[in-house]
Each structure stands twice: as C-alpha cells, then as structure tokens.
Amino acid sequence: QVQLVESGGGLVQPGGSLRLSCAASGSIFSINAMGWYRQAPGKERELVATITSVFSTNYADSVKGRFLISRDNAWKTVYLQMNSLKPEDTAVYYCNAVVVGRGFWGQGTQVTVSS
Predict the structure, then answer these.
(1) Does the pLDDT value for residue 101 go beyond 90?
(2) For the range 70-74, what are the long-range contacts, defined as Cβ-Cβ under 8 Å and sequence gap of 24 or more?
C-alpha cells in the first residue's frame, strides 16, 4: 500500500505562487506514476499534472506553462509548483499514485486564489 499526505495549500492572491508537496510512504518502490488532481466547487475532479517513472510529464491545458510537477528519484516526495495563480485555480488539490494498476489518494489540500 501507499500512503500520501499533501501539504502546502493556502490562501494566495492572483498572480502569486504556491508549492504543494505530496509525501509518499509504503510500497513506493513499485509506483508507476503519480499525479495531481483538483476539484472545485460544482466541478468534477480533473487531472492537473502527471509524472512517470521515467520523468515524463503531462499537464492540463489550463495550467500548462504555469504549473510544474517534479519528484525526487525515490518517489518520496512529489511537488506541484504553481505560478501565476488565477481565481479559477481555486480547488482542493489531491495527490494520486498508481501502483501496478491500483490507485491511491491523499486527503487533499485546499488552495484558494482570491484578492
């Protein structure tokens, strides 16, 4: 099993930056990919960014050029650097890990972008 704990959320003004962290523990040696998802009020949960075991990355069009996903070599921590934040980025952000076809989720961290 994999346990995931997100941190780094908070309140930020438009144009500001936040760095989210996801600390992974358990069977992290078998992780195939990890990602960040978000869910805003009244919206479905959407994919934000993913990173694979070979460090390939993928981003939603809405965040491309503003957000960066990264990780350490051992999958201990995955980051989401969020720059040029907009009010529409307001959501609960969730960390996700895939291990041999099984999915694991963190509890989420609230990001609020408001002036």
Answers:
(1) no
(2) 71/34, 74/28
